[in-house]
Structure formats: structure tokens, C-alpha cells
Amino acid sequence: MKTLKYLFLVSLLVAVFIPASSMAAKAPVVIGLQGPITGPWAYEGEMAKQSCEIAAKLINDKGGILGGRMIELRVVDDAGEPKTGALAAQKLVGQKEVVAVVSTYGSSVCEPASNIYEKYKKVNIGYGVTAVRLTQRDFKYFFRTCGRDDSQGKFFADNVPAKFNAKKIAIMHDNTAFGKGLAEDTERALKPMVDAGKVQIVYYDAITPGEKDFRVSLTKLREAKPEVWYYTGYYAEAALLVSQAREIGVTCPFVGGNAAINNEFVKIAGLDVAKGCYMTNEPLPADLPYDKAKEFLNAYKAKYGDIPSSPWPIYAADALNIIAYTVDKTGSMDADKLAGYLRKDVDGVPGITGPIGFTDQGDREGVPFYIYVVDEKGNIVISK
Amino acid sequence: MRVAVEQIINGLTIGSFYALIALGYSMVYGILKLINFVHGDFFTLGSYLGYTILIFAAAFITAHFGLWGGIVCAMLVAALCLALTGLVVERIAYRPIYPAGRLPAVVSALGASIVLQNAIMVIWGPRYQAYPAPMIPNLHLLFFGINITLLQVVILVFSFVLMGILYYIIQKTLFGASVRAMALDRDTASLMGIDFNRVILFIFTLGPALGAVTGVMVGMYYRQISFTMGWNYGLKAFTATILGGIGNIPGAMFGGLLLGVLEMLGAAYISAAWKDVFVFIILILVLIFRPTGIFGETTAEKV
Amino acid sequence: MDDSNPSPVRRLHLYETILLFAVPVLFVVYPFAVNDYYIDIGFYFGIYALLGLSLNIVLGEVGLFDLGHAGFYAIGAYTTAILNTKLGVPVIILIPVSALAAALFAYIVCSPIIHLRGDYLCVVTIGMGEIVRLALINNFLGLTGGPNGVYNIDFPSFGGSFVIDSSIEYYFLIWIIVGVSIVGLIRLQHSRIGRAWNCIREDEVAAGTTGIDVRYYKLLAFVLGAALAGVAGNIYASKLMAVSPESFTFWESCMMFCIILIGGMGSIPGVLIGAAFISLFPEIFRPFAMYRMLVFGVVMILMMMFRPGGAWPRRRGGADLPSLFSRMRKSHDG
Amino acid sequence: MTDERRTTHDVVLETKKLTKIFGGLTAVADFDADVRAGEIYSLIGPNGAGKTTVFNVVTGIYRPDHGNVIFKGADITGKKPHEIVRFGIARTFQNIRIFPHMTCLENIMAGQHCRTSAGLWSTLFATPQKHREEEKIRETAERRIRQVGLARFRDELARNISYGSQRMLEIARALATEPALLVLDEPSSGLNAGETDALMKFLRELIANENLTILLIEHDMNVVMGISDRVAVMDEGRKIAEGRPEEIYNDPRVIEAYLGSEDD
User: Of the candidates D113, D151, D104, which has an alpha carbon nearest to the alpha carbon of residue C191?
Assistant: First the structure.
């Protein structure tokens, strides 16, 4: 037992010191990634890490930036939890060689972390943080490559009821910061139409993420007789929801938010159920005419077998790309210069998710949306 | 009416999952007075093993044994593996710690839970996994306008059969009597010649095996599994155990079913978002008025 | 029948004497020697130490299984967040207010359930913690901001002139509070209140027949424990400038439970060791990436195997550190 | 025991028609007794006669179904155990119930709890008044620990001392509550002959030197006959006889119900 104890201690020590001793080659440009590598959102963290690695590799394969310096990714785990996120941010800001950070998934984790980045003057670009308020704090160093809750909500209100000729709308969210935010913004965007009597919100409620049984909520939804049903949460629950809804006889069209439908959704729900499900989404990589998208997608698929199953990791890759681009263009590691350049001079720069530009608050400029549908073969295509 | 009946059936289905998991908690608690936090993760592991078997051995099994054969096979393998895992965990994480008392064992149980959950994440990856749709029967049945699936019926019947068998073993057989005696008073039972190790062997193979079977059923029923799901089910099942009266086998079954039905009715008639609050408030109210659970003995302490 | 033959008082071991003086010095010097990241780790260590001390009253001193302590922590944090952002009450004033709010909540919730024994009490506290968390997620009374939480919380300031906003200031804020709490708890441990708590932990019936109002002292423990957790919540909220329900899960309660058992029931140095383990370990083992929680779990099992009574169990009688403190004070009093 | 000491016939404890029913079983039925100041009053009877139940009702652990407990003229029926201690009744248990993980001295100090009042604030701010009180607690405890001869175990955990010492510790703890009535449940059980003799001597000295009354359950007839002033015999929840030890010793009903059972 005693040997076991010592063996264990020694292996711990070795494990701690090995990473520190890795050799430094020709000084790379270090970009941080803060994401949920462990914890309940670990799959998002894993994909974000993979995406950033692919994006960095694509840049490095072309000879890096600043005339031959490689991109090095430094990943810190925030476990999807605010306190750990703040510590992760604090760890990165203490490392002078980290130029800027791709950070993070989840608005409530981003909030305290971005406070720290702001205070220590480190450019940080969110990839899965859609709460409107994040860019309303007049922060200098905070940007995001993903859209905001209200842009999608507005798109829904403008297009979806008309498309399905629907007067009775059901909205369901999953009580996560993202899902709830989108649901609220959709409700807000629909309000003028509701006041004018054009549409009616006949159902508005939440389900609990991580649960498996939603038949009760769905029965209520069925009794409300909606003509279109908008679910603003994630694919894992969405797949269960649609399967169970069809089981108990909910027949109205299902429209998911941009996290609700992907290949995993089709896999879990099964083709029978999934086909004919709609979603509001930014253009999917596969539909993007941009070279970057094809290149990224192929590289990702080659390495991991399939494209990422949620939209956020692609925004993470784009965040890394735009940081690399800005460092390359300015030739500077200075946070003020980078932030200034991102705000003023980055405009229409090609990215995986389309041309990238930022508003003065740091929001992504012009995130386009489409209505997608799952076709007979289980592919997700733009709905005509 | 239709809604209420459907909800009760849904509630019974989810309740039977809780009940089967709760049995594992209750048996371990009865003998060791230990909250076996790792039990929820046994359930998850069982679910992942069943998934793996269905994915990799699907074509072969289905070809030889048919659709149901494949499912039975997945359940059997998962149950066997988990019985073994249960023993290993008991040997490593609990046995060396029994003499120190029950509180250190609680920490060890939490540690084991963390290990198992993260091992699942490392092995299968953090993403959700989907049970293969073609391996799962999806037939709908309509009784008087009430919509249920064949799978639901099978799950309910099978769960009740399992519970019935366990009830029989515990309440009617000589071995069951020795388990109950051990739960009542370990020292006296040992003096009467009941082998403690045999009882431990029994509860740490049967409990996890039941959990594994439940895991496979949950995987089929919802098609989608994640490495963190055991925590949620574990918490609910433990609540069910307490609701029924901890250490009491029929109590755990009843507690599980009641919890499932309460949850569904709370969601239907109060609010889906507040249903867990509703469940916990009921639990607290029950305990205020029956401090040892519904089936718990209310004997005064001997002074 | 008199045998006036008092046992020799156990003297402090040398290492204990060294620790007694070196540890406080280390705590003061530490933040001046490292960068902000390590100071922040020290800060969160302090938060867990405070939470550990607060749960130690309930679990360590009275032996009540409380697996819902994160609920009290949440009440403190949200009281601060809501009153500060909605009404503009200064954070520093909200320290006692948060403590009171959490204490009041504990009193109301625990009064009807205090007679429950062992694991039944345990599951009720779990339920209580979950109810709090779910109420926060569901935007209770439209105040808690749902899953997004409450944000834009101020920094604590003394009359507007001295604002606590840097890592090092927070570090000292939390450790001063921890220090004050430790002094208070040592005094309680060596008073009739602390003895009454221990008696209840040892044998509830005998405590009653020895003249201790079991119900009152159990409630007092919950109320005091909740108040301290409320203070921790206040500081946590202002440090992060935002609160959200993810920080107050059942998992967090479990970690507090582990602090006590890893350190040793009812032992104040033990609480510090346990808190260090829970807060430092995951940071030290960052290089393990996704394996780090795996290692964490293994170490928890090993700790219980090798030191089931905790890393630093409470020593009674003779010279444990707390009684040394009180003796030192006594000699000062003359 | 000499009769001179019994200068008063004031009744300290009186039970009136005390009845306690568990489920269908009547453990105690219409139990009347009066314990007079300064005496040692013993309760004997076969196992299951209801003696301990009487004790539990008197000390507030159980609430009686009928009847009253009057202590020094005050009705204390149904009061909580800690309130009854404050009135001046302290007890020990048949199976020793000390606080095993506290030191011997702390065990005894706990007994002073009901005679002291320092609250949360005076403790937290360490007021001089609290300090004085703590000194008083310590002095009392030191006195009691010397009285029972355990001073050398002062800082020893209570669980580490011998069974006989634990008995004495429990008695010392009860004495530290400054009782007028000491209720002892089989104090000699588990003690060897030497320890039993010491116990009898101790109880005699106690009653002689302190303003105290003792209510006793005892199986050891030597102890009962040796130190009791009066003895009551219980069988099946009822009092079947009461009187001086020598009267009881020769009472045919007692021999039949109690002593007779030993012939089986």
C-alpha cells in the first residue's frame, strides 16, 4: 500500500511538470481558448477546441502569420461554471504571451470572465454567448463572432409566421441562458403583431434541460393547438421533443432555433421524425459559398469524421481566424491596437460563417439568417 | 381525462425507472447505512454499454435473435458487466473504508461517482450518444384514444416483473430474510450466522445490474444518453428512496412510482418548469408528517 | 474520594508551533509574491474556507447532514445582487444584510424539519437546496433574472473613498473575514454553546437529559451556518460582479460536505486543509485537461482510505491549537 | 441508613395515576408514587415491569397518556427533557450514554449548561461576564470530576476510559446539573463487586453530604437492600408493593412476582 502511495505521488509530480518543460521553438503567436472542457457542456468545449485546432492548423500549414510565426492554441477549461471561468480568465491574463482569447461558451460564464479580460486589457472574442447585454457594457476589448438573441428573434417574427401562414404560435424554451434569451426576444419581436391581432402566442413555457421526458409539456402544447411551434433550445432536447410530440399526436410544423437541428438531431430523432423539421439558422458551413468554409469543413471532417454538431464551434474557429488576421495585419500584439483595428478596420473579412465585421459595441455585423429544413434524405437544406 | 390518463402512464413509466434505481440505493443503504452516490453512474455506465452493444453487435444479434433478441442481449451484457463493476467498486472504494464509519464512506462514494462519470466521458467522449433507431421497436398503440407505445408497455411490464422478482426474493425467501435481518441489525444478524459478505455480494451485484437494465431501457425509451445523466436520475431515485422509507424495499418501489407520477402531474397541472420544486415540496411535507417516510417504521428510539 | 492528580497537559509538537506562526505569515506574504491568478486562487480558497467554516458548524459541530448548503450561499449572493442592482444599496452594507437574509431563510425553512434524523434531514436539505436553485432559474418573482442571473454588481467600498476592486484587496477582504470567523468559532467551540452542539452530535437523547435544548441549538447552528454562507455569497457576488444559478448546484453542496470530511469533522485547521484541497486541486491539475476530475475522484477515495478521520482531526483537551489560543489570551488577561 | 437524617417528609416527586401505553401494550398503569426529600427510593421489579418507562416519563423523554408528574409542587407533565433538568431532575441511563468523543471534563461541563446563560453575543465578543461564567463551569466540573475520582482522566476522551469509570462519569455529569433529584437507572449493572461497593459508598456519602434525593432502579438486591430508605415493587406496569427494604424482602406478593421468578 505504501509503495502505491509513493508511486501515485511521483506520477502526479511528473504529470504536473511535463507540460511546463516543453521546448519553445521559433516564438509562436499564442492565442487562448477558454471553453467548457469538462462539466455538463463538455461536448461543446471539445468541439470548440477541435475547431480552433483545425483553424490554427490551416493557418500554420500556409506558413503561419507575421512571416512565418506559427499559431499556438492555449486551452483553459472553465467547466461551464462562472467561478472557474473567472479563474481561467485570470490565468490567461497573467500570461503575457497570450495575445487574445477566444472566450467562451455560455453568457453567464462569459460575464465575469469578460470583466477580467476588460480589466487586464486582453482582447476576448465570444463564440457561444448570445445574451444581448454582453455588448451593452461599453467594453473596449470584448467582441463576439456569434449573433445576438434578438437578431434571430426578429428574423423569426418577420418570416416564420408568414411562411406557414400561422396565426397561433407556440414558443418553448429550455431555461438555459441561451434558450430563454432567444424565447424572450422572439416574444418581444412578435409583440407588435400580437398587439395588431395578426398572431397569437398560444403557448409559452419552459422544459428542463437534461430531462428525458417532455410528454407532459407536449400534451399541454397539443391542447393549445398551435399552427407553428418554435423551440429555442438545443438539439439534444429538440430531438426528444419532436419524437415524443409526434408520438402523442402533435402535428404542427416544428421550427427550431439555431442550436436545435443538426446531424445529431436527425440521428437521435430518426429520419421519419426529423424530416420536415425546420430551423432558423445562420448559413450552415455546407451552404456557404466561401472558400474558407469549404476548407475548414473538409479539414474538420477529415480529422473527426463529421462536421461539428452545433453552430458554436464554428464561431470559435472564426474568432481564432479573425484574431490571427488582425495580428497579422497590424503586426502588433498590443491589445489597444488590436481592439481598435477589430472595431474600425475589420469589415467584410472572409470567415467561415461569412464576411466578418464588428459594430462599435463589438457585436458581429450582419449575421444573416435562413430557414432550413430536414429533407427526405436527412440532409439539412435551405427551405425554398 | 385523456390527458390525465396519458400523464399517469408516462409518470408510471418514468417512475418505474426511478423505482428500479431506487432499489439499488435502498438495498445498499439498508445494509451499510451508506448513501451510495455512485449508483446513478452505474446506471449511466449500463446505458452506455447497452448502446455500445447495440451499435457494434447490432447486425449480428438482430440477424440471429431478432429485434427483441438484440435488446435482451444488450441488457444481459450490460447487467453482467455492471454486476462486476459493482463488486469492483465495493472492493476498492468502500470495503477499506467501512471500519472508519459511514461519513468517510459518503466522501468515498462521491469520489467513486466522479471517477466513473469522468471515465465514461473519457471513453465515450462528452457528446450525447444516440441509441440506434432501427434497433428500437416503435409501434404505437391506441387504447380508447389514449396514445401509448409498445415500448412503453413492454418497459412497464418488464419493470414490474423485475420489481416483483426482487420483492419475492427479499420478502419471501430465506436468503431475503437474511438480507432483511442484516438491514435491521448487522451485529445480531452476524451472530446468528448470516454471512455479511454474501449479503454484500448480493446487493452489489444485483443493485448495479438492475441499474444497468434500467439504463438500457432509458436509452431505448429516450434514444439519447449523456455521461451526466446518472447524477439527475440518482438524485431523483435517492429522493424516491427516502419518500418510501429508506432501506425499505417495497417503500423504494412505491416511492419511485409515486415520484414519477407526481412529477408528471405537477408538470401537467402546475408548470413544467416548477415541477421539481413541486416534487421536493411534497417530499418535505411528507417527511414533516411522517419523519421516516411513507413506509418507514415509526418506532420510538429505545432508551 | 479525591485524586488530585491532573494529567500532564499535552504540549504542542514543534511542527505545530511552527505551523501556528508560519501559516498566518505565509497568508500575509503570499499575495505579494505571486501574480493575480495565484492571488485569485487564494481568494477562492478563502471563499471555500468560509463556506467550509459555515458548514462545519452544522455538520462538524452538531453532526447534522446538510447537503443543501449551497442554498444558503445562493440566498446570500442573490440578496446582495438584487438589492445592489435594483435599489443601489452599497455592497458593504449588504454583508450583514445577506447574512441576515440567509439566516432568516434558514430559520424559516429549518424550523419545521429540524426534528428529522440523519438521512431524512439530509434529503430534505438536498430538496431545499434544489428548490432554491430551481426558483432562481425560473426567475422567482421576476427578481433573479432566470438562468442569466443578475449582473452589474458593484464593488464594495468604504464611504466611496476606498474601493475594493483588485485581486489583492479581495484576497485580504475574504481572509480577514475568514480570520474573524475563525476567532468567533474558536470562542464558540470553547463555550457552553459549542459543548452543547457537540453533545447533540454525540447523543441527542443524552444531550436533552443533560439540560440542553436540542431543538434550539440545532436551529442556532443552521442559522449561524447560513449567515456565514450568506457572507460568502455576498463577497462571491461582488467579486464576480454577476451571479447565476450554475454556481449554486447540488454539486457545490457536495463539495462543501467533502471539505469537512476531508479536513476532519469539527476541526478548524481541518476545514482550511479541506478547502485548500477542493479549491487548489482542480487548478493545480489543469494540465490533466479532461482527466483532471478523474484524478480528483481517485484522490478523494485515497484520502478516505488513508485518513478516514480527515487530514487534521480535532484534538480535544490538552493543547489543540484553538485551546492554545484561548490559553494565550487568558495569560494576557493576567 | 439512619432515620435521624430523614428530618423532613416533604414530598419531592409525586406521580399520580401515571399511565403509558405503547401500541396495545400498557407499559405503566396508574402508577402512584411519592419520593420524599433526602431519601433513596428504589424501584424494583422483573424485566419489562415498566420501571425504565416510569423514568422516561418522569424525565420527559416520553409523554404520559394519563396522569401527572409533580415535582416540588409544580406540574411538569409533558415538559421537554431539558426543561425538566432545569427544574432539578437529572438522570443516568441503563446503557451508559456519555458523549464518547468529548473529554471527561467536557462531559461534566456539559452538565452545567442548564445552570449558565452565556448567549451567542457574549460568547462571540468574549465578554468578562461570559469569562466568569466559564470559570464557574470549569470549577464546578473540576470539583465533580474529583468527587467521582476521575480527575486523572480529565483530558481523556470519554470513550477511552473503563466501563466503571464511564458510569461514574455519567453520574458526575448528572450531578453537575445541580439536581434536587437524581434518577439512576441501574447504576450497578456491569460493575464488578469492588466497583459496586464503591458505588454504594459513594451514593451514601452523596446523600449524606448534599441536599439531594435519589430515585433508583436496581436489580442487584444487595444494593437495593443496602442503601434504600424505601422500595417500590413493580410488576406488569403496576406498583404491587411499597415499603422499607426489610418489609419488601418478606412480602409474599413480591416474592411471588419478582423473586419467585428466579426459581424458574
Answer: D113
Residues A95 and A183 in one domain: no
**Which CATH number is D202's domain given?**
3.40.50.300
Share of chain C above pLDDT 90, in %: 54
Q: Do B222 and A215 count as a contact with CB atoms less than 8 A apart?
A: no
Q: Does B298 touch chain D (CB under 8 A)?
A: no
Residues facing A206 on adjacent strands: A173
D239, three cell numbers = 406498583
* Per-residue pLDDT tens over the stretch C315-333: 776 544 444 444 444 444 4
Q: Cβ contacts of residue A80 below 8 Å, gap of 6+?
A: A36, A39, A40, A41, A42, A44, A45, A105, A106, A109, C246
Over residues C215-249, the pLDDT tens digits come to 999 999 999 999 999 999 999 999 999 999 989 99
Domain B2-289: top CATH class: mainly alpha
**DSSP, res B93:** I
* D102 to C198: CB separation less than 8 angstroms, yes or no: yes
* Residue A55, in any domain of the structure: yes
Q: Is C117 near chain B, with CB under 8 Å? A: yes
Contact C333, D128 (CB under 8 A): no
Residues composing chain B:
303
Rounded distance between C-alpha atoms, residue B243 and residue D59, angstroms: 33
Number of domains in chain D: 2
Of B52, B32, B11, B167, give the one whose Cα is nearest residue B109. Answer: B32
Report the residue from B29, B114, B303 with minimal CB separation from C293: B114
Measured in degrees and rounded to the nearest 5, phi and psi for residue D242 equal: -155, 145
| Three cell numbers written together for A194 | 400580437
Residue-range definition of the domain harbouring residue A276: 150-281
Contact D57, D18 (CB under 8 A): yes
| CATH level 2 (architecture), domain C14-333 | Orthogonal Bundle (1.10)
Flag whether residue B151 sits within 8 Å of chain C, measured between CB atoms.
no
d(CA A220, CA A216): 6
User: Hey, where are the domains in chain B?
Assistant: 2-289
CATH number at A262 reads 3.40.50.2300
Q: How far apart are alpha carbons B214 and B82 in whole angstroms?
A: 12
Are D238 and D172 within one domain?
no
The count of other CB atoms within 10 Å of the CB of residue A174 is: 29
ipTM score: 0.84
**Alpha carbon of D160: minimum distance to chain C alpha carbons (Å):** 13
- Give the whole-angstrom CA distance, residue A151 versus residue A281: 11
Is residue A230 a part of any domain in this protein?
Answer: yes
Q: What's the pLDDT tens digit per position in C265-309?
A: 889 999 999 999 988 888 887 777 678 788 888 888 888 888 888
C-alpha cell at D131: 469569562
Sign of CA dihedral B171, B177, B183, B185: positive
Q: In whole angstroms, how far apart are CA B65 and each of A290, B80, B134?
A: 50, 19, 15
Task: Give the strand pairing for D238-243 and D230-235.
Answer: antiparallel
Residue reference for cell 466501563 = D163
List Cβ neighbours of C228 (8 Å cut-off, separation of 6 or more): C50, C51, C53, C54, C57, C99, C181
Q: Which of these, C76, C128, C164, C129, lies nearest to C250 by C-alpha position? A: C129
Judged by CB atoms within 8 Å, which residues 210-229 of D form the interface with B?
none
What lies within 8 Å, CB to CB, of D111 at 6+ separation is C210, C211, D90, D141, D144, D172, D173, D174, D175, D176, D177
What is the identity of the amino acid at C28?
A: V
C131 — contact with chain A (CB < 8 Å)? no
**Cβ pairs bridging B and C (under 8 Å):** 128
